[in-house]
Design goal:
Strand content: under 5%
Oligomer: single chain
Number of domains: 1
Largest sheet: none
Radius of gyration: 40 Å
Structural class: mainly alpha
Order of helices and strands: HH
């Protein structure tokens, strides 16, 4: 390729297939890079979707735990109120018998 100039038609003609082959190689490399970038973008997109799903699931689990604890607290409160009410009713069931 060193002897390329407008007056050297033979050199240009001989070099043209080499240039075409180099351009073809370049086009194939660009295609491969583009394909790899698309695949990487899909992996990133799928990973982001999985992250959102996991965060939603985690949030749902925390909400369920809070609801369960609130229910336990309400149950305990109701039991305590029932015991106090039974214990404050004269002539009925003594509080000591309930706790025993």
């Amino acid at each position: 390729m060193n002897n390329l100039n407008a007056g050297n038609h033979a050199g240009v003609s001989a070099t043209l297939p080499q240039l075409q082959a180099a351009l073809q190689t370049l086009a194939q490399a660009r295609s491969s890079i583009g394909s790899n970038l698309d695949a990487l973008a899909n992996v990133v997109s799928n990973s982001n979707s999985k992250i959102v799903t996991l965060q939603t699931t985690q949030s749902d689990l925390v909400d369920a735990d809070v609801a369960q604890e609130a229910m336990k607290e309400q149950q305990t409160t109701l039991q305590q109120q029932a015991l106090v009410q039974l214990g404050s009713t004269p002539g009925k069931i003594p509080l000591i018998n309930i706790l025993a």
